[in-house]
From TrEMBL:
Keywords from the UniProt entry: Hydrolase
Region ranges (Disordered): 1-26
Matching SUPFAM superfamilies: Sortase
Protein name as catalogued: Sortase
Top-level taxonomic group: Bacteria
Species classification: Bacteria, Bacillati, Actinomycetota, Actinomycetes, Kitasatosporales
One Pfam family recorded for the sequence: Sortase
Length: 129
């Protein structure tokens, strides 16, 4: 099943990553989807400022609302034009716990106040507790 497009977190100081409520909780079966900003306007670095630097094998620790931690290992990342966003690949159900982290990417367009691309990091659960 392909899910609808999630809302982007607000651009404000110390804005956390947003969890797409249409996706599983991180650590549950299926692709948990988190969105964040690279930068947040005049406030500087966003929660996912260094996300594009994650390489395969890197670990991502997600602290859930219940206080438990889910640890994911990066499998790959992809930069894709926003008008060709791979919705099915990002949101489609999987048979194991996975994670998708999404940010804007590509060169910033000052005139449009936006980025032309998205960077998507694909990771799988490797530990929890």
């Amino acid at each position: 099943m392909v899910r609808r497009h999630p809302q982007v977190p607000p651009i404000e100081k110390d804005a956390p990553a947003g969890w797409y409520e249409g996706s599983p909780t991180p650590g549950q079966r299926g692709p948990a989807v988190l969105l964040g900003h690279v930068t947040v306007g005049d406030f500087g670095e966003g929660v996912f400022y260094r996300l594009a630097q994650l390489a395969p094998g890197a670990q991502i620790k997600v602290t859930r609302a219940d206080g438990k931690q889910a640890i994911f290992t990066v499998q790959r990342s992809a930069e894709v034009p926003k008008d060709r966003f791979p919705r099915q690949e990002v949101y489609e159900d999987t048979d194991k716990p996975e994670l998708r982290l999404i940010i804007c990417g590509g060169p910033y367009d000052r005139k449009a106040h936006s980025y032309p691309d998205n960077i998507v990091v694909f990771a799988t659960l490797t530990a929890s507790g």
